Amino acid sequence: MASPNLIILYVKDPAESAAFYRNILSREPAVEAPNFVAFPLDGGFTLGLWRRSSVEPQPSAIGNRGEVAFMVDGENAVARHYEDWRGRGLPFAQDLTELDFGPTFVVLDPDGHRLRVCEPDK
């Protein structure tokens, strides 16, 4: 059975998005082409950044209807990430807050994709 292992975000400028993700992921991409950049992630996943104008077939709508979540484990891990990312000057859509599932916050990448940091389910 095939298992999902590639997350693709449509972006305006892959080079600009690559710089943003280099900063928050603290790693280099495995692939850098004019229309596509790929970052290997832990657990066998890859994050792909595909130039929106070159996507085939073109998406029927544009908009953010989902999030990429970074689950971090450990005492105060979410708060530590919040302080780290705030220090990097990232744009926040939601400051550190407590929701039903625990502490969380949301930053936006250059295309407005929502990146949530939260704790794993216990």
UniProtKB/TrEMBL annotation:
Gene3D superfamilies given for it?
Answer: 3.30.720.110, 3.30.720.120
List the Pfam families: Glyoxalase
Q: Which residues form the VOC domain?
A: 3-120
Query: Which InterPro entries does this one have?
Result: Glyas_Bleomycin-R_OHBP_Dase, Glyas_Fos-R_dOase_dom, Glyoxalase/dOase/EhpR, VOC_core
**What highest taxon heads this organism's lineage?**
Bacteria
SUPFAM superfamilies per the record? Glyoxalase/Bleomycin resistance protein/Dihydroxybiphenyl dioxygenase
Name of the protein described by the UniProt record = Catechol 2,3-dioxygenase-like lactoylglutathione lyase family enzyme
- Per the UniProt entry, what species is this protein from, by scientific name? Rhizobium viscosum (Arthrobacter viscosus)
